[in-house]
Specification:
Blueprint lengths: L1 H9 L7 H8 L1 H4 L4 E3 L5 E3 L14 H7 L41 E2 H10 L6 E5 H22 L5 E6 L6 H11 L5 E4 L2 H10 L6 E4 L5 H10 L5 E6 L2 H14 L5 E4 L24 H13 L6 E5 L9 H20 L7 E3 L23 H18 L6 E4 L3 H4 L3 E11 L15 H12 L5 H20 L5 H22 L12 H4 L2 E5 L3 H4 L1 H5 L6 E3 L9 E6 L8 E2 L12 E3 L9 E5 L5 H4 L10 E7 L5 E7 L4 H7 L4 H17 L5 H16 L8
Parallel strand pairs: 4-20, 5-6, 5-12, 6-7, 7-8, 8-9, 9-10, 10-11, 11-12, 14-16
Antiparallel strand pairs: 1-2, 2-3, 4-13, 13-14, 13-19, 15-19, 16-17, 16-18, 20-21
């Protein structure tokens, strides 16, 4: 606590405010209007209060209302394909406009919510899913596209498609279907299991089912048969041989397919997943292969079955320039394929890649994006209109497969801090008169360190520390003297850091001191299970306390999970201009709970998580606003028990119990256990098997 007091002493007149907390944790930047802080210092969720997109185009809220007609199933006049594969005409009947039903508006106090859940016996860590944020994200994206379509006089429609690989949890997918129904929001399958799931749960004949990924004959036949349910199923050809395969299966089952072609663009994305695009992409057909495909379809008399052109730049595209480049190339490919005779083309699928601003910097940094949702929609619509108009080709219906942008914001992992290892220096009040010369040098450096000589003092301390180790290893320095020198070294570093906080610019070589002098907060979660991207690809996630935000956070810390892996730590955190390596936190008070939220984890994290140390899925709670502005706990999905995760790795709990009993009997015969102890051990084993894989609080 000495460091905390010293920090307070820097400016005793300054008072911490909620505005300081908002700035420190960047909540207003990455929160998109969904997250804020109340006067009690608790983090609150306002799921229906998203900030409008910052762009030159129509606002998101206006777009939803103004563009609703573009998502109502009205028939296009541009040659778009209806659900039965027939080509529509301008004389088609009108379909009544569908608009999203009004939804409740209110706020949810996250600290109060967690207190209520723990009183219900739901243990932390808890994954919170805010259903209304899902609804808001779908309306935002659809509204942005429909607003752009209206503004630019675009003749096609917008059809959103959710790739379920991003978050396949049943409740999430079902809510996307429900909230997307007014917009005829579709689903994308990238595998056979995903397709089987979609076939069973999706019932909107106006919505698209896009089948991506490599396919075998069973996958193809299943997709073709699904079209007989009245669904609009489009099989996307990912490699040249798939076209022959689809043709062969379609002939056998006597079903004309709706086909798409994935283009392997030369244009590449920007960011962590840019390798997903470009000439050497894993998926897609080259320009020459697409021309061959059209020719082959003509020879079969089936060129009219080609309905969709698809491309994908990769996930989390951070720079709008990359998207614009890809749109120009894809738009030209669409026009040229149409002119080659593929006049049935009525959809252009721009794939995924719509980013999420994890750090709130609004830059082309890998964990950010330098464009808004509205700008993205404007650029897609305008580019395709311009290219098509130049060659007098009908405007295609626009499809996008945004997954991350739909789901990321709606999930928050709340963890409790189990304990803290504080960095603490022990500075002697004086040193012995007969202390070793090196000890005296270190003491003099500590005493003389000032704002004028911080770098010099730091350099001297580094040199003395090296000498200490050398002399100790040679037997010329006692252990007690080594301890004094090491304590003085860290005291000098701490003093240097405090002095540097008052400088306009931190010297570059001192930037690592903050992390070196930080505390470690041990949190009740597994990084590998709940935020695997933070470990695997250095993804940044916003992290902040969910309470005490009206108090100044006096500690600087890194986070450690409860796995036994040294990689199970988070030591990179979002910052406005850079990545910071410590997080501002409050001291953990004895006997008091301290909760942290890890935000924007709704995309990929649950699906990619693994069973490191056999930590399973966390407890999950679905929360929705009620009509009166309060909240309802819609669903509670219990986290994995120990027996469940053991069964995942082929252990039988009953077999393990039998083996334990045998070992207990041996121990009883050897008088290593009493009968009472044996009963206690067996009962503890049984209780452990049905218990949560995570830890109870202290």
């Amino acid at each position: 606590m000495a460091r905390a007091k010293a920090m307070l002493a820097q400016d005793p007149l300054r008072r911490w405010t909620v505005a300081d907390a908002l700035e420190t944790y960047g909540i207003q930047r990455w929160g998109c209007g969904y997250f804020a802080i109340n006067e009690r210092g608790n983090l609150i969720v306002t799921p229906r209060s998203a900030l409008p997109s910052a762009s030159a185009g129509p606002s998101a809220s206006a777009s939803v209302a103004a563009g609703a007609t573009g998502t109502n199933g009205a028939t296009s006049t541009n040659g778009a394909t209806s659900t039965n594969g027939a080509t529509s005409t301008g004389g088609a009947k009108e379909v009544p406009t569908l608009v999203p039903a009004p939804s409740p508006v209110g706020t949810i106090d996250m600290r109060e919510l967690i207190d209520e859940l723990t009183q219900r016996g739901i243990q932390l860590p808890i994954l919170l899913r805010f259903s209304d944020i899902l609804r808001a994200r779908i309306e935002l994206i659809c509204g942005a596209f429909n607003g752009a379509i209206k503004e630019y006089g675009y003749q096609g429609q917008y059809r959103g498609v959710y790739p379920i690989k991003v978050n396949q949890n049943r409740t999430v997918v079902e809510e996307i279907i429900e909230y997307g129904r007014p917009f005829h929001y579709g689903l994308e399958a990238g595998s056979k299991p995903e397709l089987l799931t979609i076939m069973a749960i999706h019932q909107d004949d106006e919505a698209l089912i896009i089948c991506n990924g490599y396919k075998d004959e069973e996958y193809i036949e299943t997709a073709l048969l699904a079209s007989k349910l009245g669904r609009t199923v489009i099989l996307v050809v990912e490699k040249p041989s798939e076209l022959d395969q689809i043709h062969r299966v379609a002939e056998r089952v006597k079903i004309r397919p709706n086909l798409g072609i994935r283009a392997r663009l030369s244009s590449r994305g920007a960011g962590r997943w840019e390798q997903s695009g470009g000439d050497f992409s894993k998926f897609g057909l080259s320009a020459a292969e697409m021309v061959d495909a059209v020719a082959k379809l003509k020879s079969w008399g089936q060129v009219d079955t080609l309905k969709l052109l698809h491309f994908h730049l990769g996930s989390q595209i951070s720079a709008i320039k990359s998207i614009k480049n890809a749109l120009r190339e894809a738009g030209r490919l669409f026009v040229e394929l149409y002119k080659l005779g593929a006049t049935g083309l009525s959809y252009l699928d721009v794939g995924g890649g719509l980013g999420v601003d994890y750090d709130g910097s609004q830059t082309n940094f890998a964990s950010s994006m330098n464009y808004s949702v509205q700008e993205y929609a404007n650029d897609v619509v305008f580019a395709l209109k311009e290219i098509c108009d130049a060659d007098q080709v009908p405007h295609p219906n626009i499809v996008s497969e945004s997954g991350r942008a739909v789901t990321a914001h709606h999930s928050v992992l709340v963890v409790n801090v189990l304990g803290v290892t504080e960095f603490d220096t022990r500075v002697p009040s004086a040193i012995p008169a007969d202390a070793a010369p090196l000890v005296k040098n270190m003491w003099d450096t500590f005493q003389s360190t000032s704002q004028k000589n911080v770098l010099e003092s730091y350099h001297d301390a580094i040199e003395y520390k090296d000498q200490v180790l050398q002399l100790f290893n040679l037997g010329h320095l006692s252990l007690s003297d080594r301890v004094i020198c090491e304590n003085l070294f860290w005291a000098i570093c701490e003093k240097v850091l405090l002095l540097c906080r008052n400088l306009a610019h931190m010297p570059e070589e001192l930037e690592g001191l903050e992390k070196a002098l930080s505390d470690t907060y041990f949190c009740n979660f597994s990084m590998f299970q709940s935020v695997p991207d933070a470990w695997a690809v250095d993804q940044l996630f916003p992290i902040a306390p969910i309470h005490r935000l009206n108090e100044e956070p006096m500690r600087r810390a890194t986070l450690a999970d409860i796995t036994c892996d040294s990689d199970g730590k988070i030591d990179s955190f979002i910052d406005l201009r850079d990545v910071k390596h410590v997080l501002e936190l409050h001291p953990k008070e004895p006997g008091q709970d301290y909760y942290l939220g890890i935000f924007l984890v709704g995309a990929y994290q649950e699906i990619l998580g693994d069973l490191h140390n056999l930590f399973g899925d966390t407890n999950t709670v679905h929360v929705a606003l009620s009509p009166d502005g309060d909240y309802d706990v819609k669903d509670v999905v219990a986290g994995d028990t120990v027996s469940e995760v053991l069964s995942f790795v082929d252990y039988s709990p009953s077999d393990l119990l039998g083996r334990l009993r045998a070992n207990v009997e041996i121990a009883l015969r050897k008088k290593l256990l009493t009968l009472e102890e044996s009963r206690s051990l067996i009962n503890r084993f049984r209780q452990g098997m049905i218990g949560y894989t995570y830890l109870d609080k202290e």
